[in-house]
Amino acid sequence: MAAAGVPTARSFTCTTAEEVAAALDELGAPYVVKDDALAAGKGVVVTNDRAEAVDHAAACGRVVIEEFLDGPEVSLFAVCDGRTAYPLQPAQDFKRIFDGGLGPNTGGMGSYSPLTWAPADLADVVMEQVVQPTLDEMVRRGAPFVGCLYVGLALTDAGPRVIEFNCRFGDPDIQPVLAMLTSPLGTLLHAAAQGRIDEVPAPVFADGAAVTVVLASAGYPESSSKGDVIRGVGNANGVNDVDVIHAGTAIIAAPEPGDPDHRHLVTAGGRVLAVRAVGYDVADARARAYAAADLITFDGLQRRTDIAAEPLGVVEGASVKDS
Ligand code: GLY
């Protein structure tokens, strides 16, 4: 990002307690300490407590200590063909486990799109300031990037700042975006894969909105619970513009007298299901998603009650994406 001139947080990579102390002093609170490893969205601590920051750094070994970025987070997905890209409609996900942006970070507890509160030119600005310079830099390095560039951003007072890149469609952020996409995704991906994205039209999105509510198992995000019987998916799925998307589920044999083939749908991970609804606007989609989510039960079920609730676009309790 530095080489490409892409706006992002200042950061230090640290492996010793001395380096950690110097970085914390330099950047000040709130402290953002990220495990420099894959951590399933759970390796970051954001805190005003210096001792907590030091402890997390010590537990991780190699860490990245970053400048705190203040502003609502957004996710923008760009489908790239190596030279250029098309953006999809921006989305926002909710990273903390509890309502109000409280509790530990997760991989995402829900999401919505479009972002009616964001500047209308957000996607254009991110393409110009982030995506195209990044693709140009990759070409300069002889490693053109073909695929989905997932840009996680903070919309700060000074403009968009990149929090993270992923090379994939983010979950659950992409779920409402794809619900609204009316042009063929396959055509777009095929053209990108063949380096000719400029030969296909820009993606088209329906009016209205989509909202996704994640249902997580007991213990998430620190752990997860497997084998809890899930009921109600059949009632929730496919009605009222709702899809139930499976993430951490399994089917187990549960023979009963007279029904030797009986099976149960059970939990098999942290984030178990995502209930996604389309509506006339965010409030309508939200109401449909929650009405469907109410039909699904399993022991220990956790879900936030404030996904896509008004006011939209507020800063979520120092939520920071990570790897
Ligand atoms: N929802 C965030 C991610 O997929 O990384």
Give me the secondary-structure topology.
Layout: E1 11-14, H1 17-27, E2 31-35, E3 44-47, H2 50-60, E4 63-66, E5 73-81, E6 85-87, E7 92-93, E8 96-98, E9 102-105, E10 110-113, H3 122-140, E11 146-156, E12 159-166, H4 174-180, H5 185-193, E13 209-216, E14 225-229, H6 233-236, E15 242-246, E16 249-253, E17 263-269, E18 271-279, H7 282-293
Antiparallel strand pairs: 1-4, 2-3, 2-4, 5-6, 5-11, 7-10, 8-9, 10-13, 11-12, 13-18, 14-17, 15-18, 16-17
Glycine binds at residues 41, 93, 107-108, 166, 170-171, 173.
Which tags fit this structure?
323 residues; alpha+beta; Dna Ligase, domain 1; D-amino Acid Aminotransferase, Chain A, domain 1; Glycinamide Ribonucleotide Synthetase, Chain A, domain 4; 5-stranded antiparallel beta sheet; 4-stranded antiparallel beta sheet; 18 strands; globular; binds glycine
Strand composition percent: 25-35%
Q: How many domains in all?
A: 3
The CATH topology label of the largest domain is D-amino Acid Aminotransferase, Chain A, domain 1
The CATH class of the largest domain is identified as Alpha Beta
Sheet with the most strands: spatial strand order: 7-10-13-18-15
Tell me about the largest β-sheet.
Answer: 5 strands, antiparallel
Whole-number mean pLDDT = 94
List the secondary-structure elements in sequence, H or E.
Answer: EHEEHEEEEEEEHEEHHEEHEEEEH
Bound molecules: glycine
* CATH-defined superfamily of the largest domain: ATP-grasp fold, B domain
Unreliable residue runs: none
Assign an overall shape.
globular
The termini sit apart by 16 Å
What structural class do helix, strand and pairing data support?
alpha+beta
Number of strands: 18
Number of helical segments with 4 or more residues? 7
Cα-atom radius of gyration: 21 Å
Percent helix? 10-25%
CATH architecture of the largest domain: 2-Layer Sandwich
